[in-house]
Amino acid sequence: MQGRGTAVCLPADIDTDVIIAGRYLRTKDYGIWATHVFEDLDASLAPRLKGAIIVAGKNFGCGSSREQAALALREAGVVAVIAPSFARIFFRNAINIGLPLIESDLACEEGSTIVFDLSGGWVDPGGKRHIIRPLSPRMQEILMAGGLVQYWRAHR
After folding, report:
1. Which phi and psi angles does 55 have, rounded to 5°?
2. For labeling, which of 16, 25, 127, 145 is most exposed (least CB within 10 Å)?
3. Domain tally for the chain?
């Protein structure tokens, strides 16, 4: 799986309540979630996420186990998230809904173009490839299918 996007830089320890506040979870309208993603951190972020690759500090997705956080990012148009580490439940939730996560400690330059290749095992934040920790073949298959539900439908 390959991808390309514009860097949006975030700090460490972004929790799921910051990704999508609980007050928006009364609706199942993903479009509403997409417009309010990161609202309590920086309301100007949501419109900049379409086609973006979030580059964050360690422990991205900590906090509650709500799947809606990963869904809100995907629906906002996030291409992938790069961070040195992820909360494990967020990591699986993201893979299961088809949102690529890349474990790497990249320096972030806001607005730069980032290219990645998960099967090739690299990310390029601007002219120099960095080797990344590879995802398992099964996780890559789940991402290629668009998520866990789509993967299981195709493998019945």
Report:
1. -115, 115
2. 127
3. 1
